[in-house]
Amino acid sequence: MELRYVDPRTLKDNPDNPRKVQPDPAYDEQLAANIREVGLIQPPLVREISGELVIRAGGRRKRCSIAAGLDVIPVLVMDTEADSADRMRAFAENLLRQGLATVDLWRAMQALAGDGWTDDAIATALNLPPRTVKRLKLCGNILPAILEHMATGDEPQTNHLKTIAQASREDQTQAWKKYKPKKGERVAWWDFARALDKRRMWARDAKFGDNHVKAYGILWVEDLFEQGDQDNRYTTQVDAFLGAQHE
Taking a C-beta distance cutoff of 8 angstroms, is the pair 175, 164 a contact? Predict the structure, then answer.
């Protein structure tokens, strides 16, 4: 193979691309944002046919590089003639691509933070809402033993993950002793989350101010899974909340 640097606009699309139905534009926007921030990581694979470079794998990378405003990108030019594997390469690249698991996403973000990336910078580079980055960081509140199990591929639904992450480590430890599955089995996440769920009192329903919050020792926690256009703070200190409300 030969590495070349070319204008992405000169590349011809793969006539055998199996993806005819285009993905959600948000995915292209996400990739374009990442390319804009860190560059094109994986060069498209091309063949030179009749003096033109024809993409065999990487049409989306070309499209998003143009959207990111790149005038030159690297490409790998195959040095053999087209063969029957070309169609399989294009098919496999589209079919076998899979996103990272929740735990892997969180660990990758932790590593980026160690390299000096801020939450806002990560959100910008990956074209993610800042709240999504904050949600992933909730994994840091989850008991390591639970994270290790999740890393095997057995993950809770988002609403269950929220409940687990917002529970105390002590409560998680006690519940995990009861619901930890045997080797090779899956967690009954619904039962596990239900055991950790506590009644919530929302700040938006409070009729009292900061003075009463301090007087009753109320601690607000933000629910990052709720809609972002409202006050999503809550407390599980039900007696304190009701006392302040009554006063």
Answer: no
Type of residue found at 151: A
State the DSSP string of 145-174.
Answer: HHHHHHTTT----HHHHHHHHTS-HHHHHH
Q: Domain residues of the chain, as ranges? A: 2-95, 198-247
What is the β-pairing status of strands 201-202 and 221-222? unpaired
Quote the mean pLDDT of the chain: 84
Give the type of residue at 141.
Answer: N
User: What is the CATH code for 2-95?
Assistant: 3.90.1530.10
Q: Dump strand ranges (E) for the chain.
A: 2-6, 45-49, 52-57, 73-77, 201-202, 221-222, 233-235
pLDDT in the model for residue 244 = 92
Q: Would the pTM count as exceeding 0.85?
A: no
Distance CA 234, CA 221 (A): 5
Q: What residue type is assigned to position 56 of the chain? A: R
Report yes or no: 35 and 68 within 8 Å, Cβ to Cβ.
yes
Give just the sign of the alpha carbon dihedral 110, 111, 117, 120: negative
